[in-house]
């Protein structure tokens, strides 16, 4: 993308004109095994953090896996282009786009492994990714003016969200039963957790993982007759 941008700008009559990438993916083939993997999701997360620097628009190729140029596919997972496998099963890369959609308008940080945004008030959101074979740890610090923050995280990695692995474990059935399809759809969902912290958030991104978070000020508004600690203690 950088090379294409520089080539365009080398010509005075075209310099500065918008560049549109109408098709992009990690492979030009509709039968590339990479497309179905968590590594693909992490790579696309890194790519999305950069494409806007050079391109006015960019379109992932494609949304669905049904693609006839190399013949109609006979299995739910076959390395197809799509974000969604046949049977309405989201691939890990689907969630990369879903996470970026929820980012805020102000970019506070953009690095080799993550991006952090804010709404300009008290809400933060970010995406972090790991293209390596080793776990990576991060720590984020939030404004100390807020006493407590509620962190919501959504994780997609090889352990939490890997429908390809589960399909393989099932014996790679070419024709999914209704039960198998429902199971893979469930497995394909991100792992969602919440936690409360003061002004820092530490987390680990597993190999080939994508980690989305949102941080909001925590305001206690429950009824004064309810005591959560007593509930936990069984009283």
Can you walk me through this structure?
The strands form four sheets. Strands 5-6-7-12-9-10 form a six-stranded antiparallel β-sheet, with helices on one face. It is 24% helix and 27% strand. The mean pLDDT is 92. Helix 2 packs parallel to helix 3. The chain is an alpha+beta fold. 29% of the residues are buried. Helix 2 links the parallel strand 1 and strand 2. The protein has one domain: Glycosyl hydrolase domain, family 39 (Immunoglobulin-like). The protein contains six helices and twelve strands. The termini are far apart. Keywords: Glycosidase, Hydrolase. One of its GO terms (molecular function) is hydrolase activity, hydrolyzing O-glycosyl compounds. This is Glycosyl hydrolases family 39 N-terminal catalytic domain-containing protein. InterPro entries: GH, GH39_cat, Glyco_hydro_39. Belongs to the glycosyl hydrolase 39 family.
List keywords for this structure.
single chain, 235 residues, alpha+beta, Immunoglobulin-like, six-stranded antiparallel sheet, two-stranded parallel ribbon, 27% strand, GH39_cat, Glycosyl hydrolases family 39 N-terminal catalytic domain-containing protein, hydrolase activity, hydrolyzing O-glycosyl compounds, GH
């Amino acid at each position: 993308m950088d090379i294409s941008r520089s080539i365009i700008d080398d010509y005075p009559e075209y310099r500065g004109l918008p560049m549109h990438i109408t098709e992009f993916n990690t492979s030009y083939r509709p039968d590339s095994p990479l497309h179905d993997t968590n590594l693909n999701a992490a790579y696309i997360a890194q790519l999305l953090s950069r494409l806007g620097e050079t391109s006015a628009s960019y379109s992932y190729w494609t949304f669905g896996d049904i693609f006839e140029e190399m013949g109609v596919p006979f299995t739910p997972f076959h390395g197809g282009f799509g974000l969604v496998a046949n049977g309405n099963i989201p691939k890990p890369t689907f969630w990369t786009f879903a996470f970026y959609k929820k980012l805020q308008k102000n970019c506070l940080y953009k690095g080799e492994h993550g991006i952090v945004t804010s709404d300009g008030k008290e809400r933060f959101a970010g995406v972090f990714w790991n293209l390596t074979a080793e776990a990576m740890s991060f720590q984020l610090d939030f404004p100390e003016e807020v006493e407590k923050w509620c962190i919501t995280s959504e994780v997609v990695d090889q352990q939490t969200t890997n429908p390809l692995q589960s399909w393989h474990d099932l014996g790679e059935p070419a024709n999914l039963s209704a039960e198998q399809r429902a199971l893979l759809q469930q497995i394909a969902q991100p792992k969602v957790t919440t936690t409360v912290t003061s002004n820092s958030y530490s987390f680990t991104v597993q190999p080939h993982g994508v980690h989305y978070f949102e941080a909001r000020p925590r305001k206690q508004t429950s009824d004064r007759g309810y005591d959560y600690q007593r509930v936990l203690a069984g009283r």
